[in-house]
Sequence to fold (180 residues):
Amino acid sequence: MIDPDWDSILRRDGPAVWRTAWRVLGRASEADECFQETFVAALEFVRQGKAVQHWRALLQRIATTRAIDRLRRRVTQRNREAFLDHTDDHPSPARLPHEQLESKELAMRLRCALARLPDGQAEAFCLFHLEDWSYREIAESLSISTDLVGVWLQRAKAKLRELLADVDPATVLAKEVPHE
Fold:
C-alpha cells in the first residue's frame, strides 16, 4: 500500500472540503472542526487498506456526513435563540440589517429542517443542492442507484416543504442578492 500525498490532497481538495462543512453548518469554528474530523476519518479509511479513486468525492462525502451529524447535535442541544445569536455569518454590505437577520433566521430554520431528514436524504440533498453534484456522482459515492438518488431528493424536498411550510418562497426569492 502506498501512502497518499496528504500535502497535495490538502492543497487541492482542502478548500472544497471546508466549504462543504461551512455550507451545512454556517459557522467557521464548527467547519474547522469538521474539516479536521474529515481528514482524520480519511486517514483511518486509508489505514484500513481501502483504495481511494476520487479523493475530493470521498472527502466531501465524509465532510457532509460529519457536518449533518454536528448539525443534529447542535439542534438538539441548543434552543433557537442561542443558535440564532451565535451564527457565524458573513454579513453582506448590500443588504439591510433586517434582511440579514431574516436571512440568518431562514438559514437556521433550513439547518434545523435538514437535521430532521433521514441520513441518506440529508446527504443527497446537501451534495446535490449545496455542492452541485450530479445524480451519478451521488449514486457512486453513496453506492446506490441514480433512481434512488432521485427518490431521496424528492422525499427530502417534500419533507423540507412540510417543515418550512410557513416560509413564503416569493419573499425569499425577492430578498436574494446575487453572489459576488
User: Anything to note?
Assistant: The chain has a mean pLDDT of 84. The first helix runs from residue 6 to 25. DSSP finds nine helices and no strands in the chain.
